[in-house]
Amino acid sequence: QVQLVESGGGLVQAGASLKLSCAASGRTFSTYTMGWFRQAPGKEREFVARISWSGDRLYYADSVKGRFTISRDNAKITVYLQMNSLKPEDTAVYYCAAKEPLATKFNYWGQGTQVTVSS
User: Fold this and answer.
1) Which of 37, 26, 35 is nearest to 115 (CA)?
2) Contact 117, 10 (CB under 8 A)
3) DSSP code per residue over 93-107
4) 3-state SS string over 21-43?
């Protein structure tokens, strides 16, 4: 079982930066693929970024590529999402997620943290 707790959300102006953190519990964190997703009001949850257990494979949604960076620190059992050049359309609840090595989809989720970008 893995528990995920996000932090770092807030209200910022367009063009600003935020760094989200996701603290995980569990001895097997270092074997999990980690990801960030987001859900804007009235929209379905969408993929933002994911990182392999080793940290050497990174994937991003086209909408955030070049602006967001996902990283992880297995020693601190934490995954991060650095968000630069934020836009109003980045406003959403951001969720951290974990996928076990043999799972076909992300099967652990955090409670989410709100990010609001004003124009």
Assistant:
1) 37
2) no
3) EEEEEEE-TT-SS--
4) EEEECCCCHHHCEEEEEEECCCC
Instruction: Take residue 92 and report the two structure tokens written for it.
Output: 């959403």
pLDDT, tens digit (0-9, with 9 covering 90-100), for 14-25: 999 999 999 999
User: Interior CA angle at 34 toward 106 and 75, to 5°?
Assistant: 140
89 near 74, Cβ under 8 Å?
A: no
Q: Which two tokens mark 29?
A: 């964190």
Task: Provide the pairing of β-strand 78-83 with 18-24.
Answer: antiparallel
Residue 88 DSSP SS3? helix
64-87 pLDDT, tens digit per residue, is 999 999 999 988 899 999 999 999
User: Which residues make beta-bridge pairs with 79?
Assistant: 22, 72
